[in-house]
Amino acid sequence: MMLKPSIDTLLDKVPSKYSLVILEAKRAHELEAGAKATQDFKSVKSTLRALEEIEAGNVVIHPNPEAKREMVRLKAELERKRQEEEEKKIKEQIAKEKEEGGKI
What we know:
CATH class: Alpha Beta
Strand content: under 5%
CATH topology: Eukaryotic RPB6 RNA polymerase subunit
Largest sheet: none
CATH architecture: Alpha-Beta Complex
Structural class: mainly alpha
Number of helices: 4
Distance between the termini: 79 Å
Number of domains: 1
Shape: elongated
Number of strands: 0
Radius of gyration: 23 Å
Helix content: 55-70%
C-alpha cells in the first residue's frame, strides 16, 4: 500500500522526519479543534489532511518559533485583560443598579 502524499515529497518541504512528524501532529490537532482548512481534502483523517496541506505548501514551519510563542503569549495576555475589563464593567453596572434600586 502506498501512502499519499509520499514521504519523499513531504521531506522536500521540511528539513527532517522529526520536523515533519511534529508539524503534522500540531496541524492535525488544530484541524480537530476546528481550525479552518486551507484546501479541499481527499482524506478523511485529520493526520492525513495535515500531510496533504504540508505537501501543498499551505502549512510550513514558522521561521522564528520564539517570535511566534511571544505573539501567542501576548494575545493570551490581551484576552485576559479584555475579560477583566468586561467583568469590571459588569460589576460596576450591578453596583449602580443596586444603588438606584435602593433609592426608589
